[in-house]
Design a protein that fits this description.
This protein is an alpha/beta fold. It contains 8 helices and 5 strands. It has helices at about 10-20, 25-40, 50-65, 90-100, 105-115, 130-140, 155-160, 170-195, and strands at about 45-50, 80-85, 120-125, 145-150, 165.
């Protein structure tokens, strides 16, 4: 944890340095993939554990509400983005986790909800969370496009997902912060495309 050895100014400088190392094309690709699903009327699913799970929920909420201009709130003819965070169905997660194993909590939801042409955004700092990998494997085998958000070395997810955003840093907090920063740009860019 870099913050344990750096003062606030040093920490913020380091975060800025790491942000500058990110490939903007990876973030642009995520926005393009989301917009393609919007145009096609397909679903965007987001998954993650722990802090990445919080990022999945946050990103989903922003994408669902924050991409729509206020002038469209009461316009039922305006197409909405179909986006769902699979981290938020607590009873379903607990049922599968308790009865069959935690590695199934996302893939089993996809089996109920997903269709070919949908997008799965999988967030895992380590890139090695078994439930994330199982979901991406299922999605790849069933016609979904997969996008992995990773840190550290990227783990197995970096090579498994079709596309991705990689933060090459061994600090989970900063990795998660950079993922969320990227997501906020994608929200803004999606707003530009569908509401302006």
């Amino acid at each position: 944890m870099l913050g344990s050895t750096l003062n606030p100014k040093q920490f913020l400088s380091r975060v800025a340095e790491e942000l500058g190392r990110i490939d903007p094309a990876e973030i642009q690709k995520l926005s393009d993939l989301v917009h393609e699903r919007y145009v096609a009327g397909r679903f965007v699913f987001v998954i993650g554990n722990g802090g990445s799970g919080s990022n999945a929920s946050h990103f989903c909420e922003d994408m669902g509400k924050g991409t729509l201009a206020r002038k469209f709130f009461d316009d039922d003819t305006k197409k909405r983005l179909k986006v769902l965070s699979l981290t938020d169905n607590t009873p379903y997660i607990l049922a599968w986790g308790n009865d069959e194993g935690f590695d199934r909590v996302f893939s089993e939801q996809l089996k109920n909800l997903a269709s070919p042409g949908d997008l799965l955004i999988a967030i895992s700092g380590s890139g090695n969370s078994p439930n994330i990998l199982r979901a991406v494997e299922w999605a790849n085998a069933h016609g979904l496009t997969t996008y992995g958000c990773t840190g550290f070395s990227g783990g197995k997810l970096r090579g498994l997902a079709h596309f991705g955003l990689h933060v090459p840093l061994d600090d989970m907090g900063i990795v998660e912060s950079i993922h969320l920063t990227a997501f906020h740009w994608v929200v803004d860019d999606t707003y530009r495309r569908i509401s302006m």
